[in-house]
Amino acid sequence: MTRAQNVYAEALYDLAKGEALGTIIYEEIKTLDKAFEGEKDFLRLLSTPNLSVEERILIIDKSFRGKIHAYTLNFLKLLTEKGYIAKFHECVMAYRDLYNLDNGILPVKVVTAQPLDEKQALRLKVRLSTITGKDVELIQQVDPACLGGIRLDYDGKRVEDTVAGRLEAVRKTLKNTVL
Question: Does this model's pTM top 0.85?
Answer without folding.
Answer: no
